[in-house]
Specification:
Chain A is mostly beta strands and 110 residues long. Helices cover 0% and strands 55% of the residues of chain A. In chain A, strands 2, 4, 5, 9, 10 and 11 form a 6-stranded mixed β-sheet that branches. Chain A has a 5-stranded antiparallel β-sheet with strand order 1-3-8-7-6, with no helix packed on it. The chains are: A mainly beta (110), B mainly beta (114).
Chain lengths: 110, 114
């Protein structure tokens, strides 16, 4: 099983829709979780950290389920500018290794 | 402004040559990372360094070497042993305290083989 797995997509959704995608991780010792956004041919940028209690930032909601070892990202009222690849990131605090998922491509359709 | 600077932005290499990619940061971060990204793929960790004069291999270290002689610099050498070096290379550093574990990325270097 890969350390961090994501559905590669693409997710093609109409503007204004709500879209959600998950990311699963294999190491139960994982301690920190993040969602990054990457635009085509650009570097990844931090979208939000993921906390155990779940957290929200505007239209974006992130949740962590430690028992099932997955994190999720929900985007409400999607905008054309949300089109990007969303990378799930997991940190194993033990050795400071940071692991990226392969990313989920999202296309918002007008 | 603080940040990470990678250079060059585009680099062309002849087969059999070693090339060094530069990564400099003025964020006073201890930890620095090198990733490789291939088209349609995620980021794969090449090497990382948690402190000056120390570094660890990532998942795909073969054919690469690094040094960390100064806190602000973490250059990556792509050696001739790396058989498929064409990729997008990203350098990152990690903050401490309130920003612990959030990575800051450079703009990347695109390496191509002539």
């Amino acid at each position: 099983r890969k350390e961090v797995e994501q559905d590669p997509g693409p997710f093609n959704v109409p503007e204004g829709a709500t879209v959600a995608f998950n990311c699963t991780y294999s190491n139960s010792a994982s301690q920190s979780f993040f969602w990054y956004r990457q635009d085509c041919r650009k570097e990844p940028k931090l979208l939000m950290s993921v906390y155990s209690s779940g957290n929200e930032d505007g239209r974006f909601t992130a949740q962590l389920n430690r028992a099932s070892q997955y994190i999720s990202l929900l985007i409400r009222d999607s905008k054309l500018s949300d089109s990007a690849t969303y990378l799930c990131v997991v940190n194993l605090r033990r050795d400071d290794k940071i692991i990226f998922g392969k990313g989920t491509r999202l296309h918002i359709l007008p | 402004d603080g940040g990470i600077t990678q250079s060059p932005k585009y680099l062309f290499r002849k087969e059999g040559q070693n090339v060094t990619l530069s990564c400099e940061q003025n964020l006073n971060h201890d930890a620095m990372y090198w990733y490789r990204q291939d088209p349609g793929q995620g980021l794969r960790l090449i090497y990382y360094s948690q402190i000056v004069n120390d570094f660890q291999k990532g998942d795909i270290a073969e054919g690469y070497s690094v040094s960390r002689e100064k806190k602000e610099s973490f250059p990556l050498t792509v050696t001739s042993a790396q058989k498929n070096p064409t990729a997008f290379y990203l350098c990152a550093s990690r903050g401490e305290g309130a920003t612990y574990m959030t990575q800051h990325f450079g703009d990347g270097t695109r390496l191509s083989i002539l």
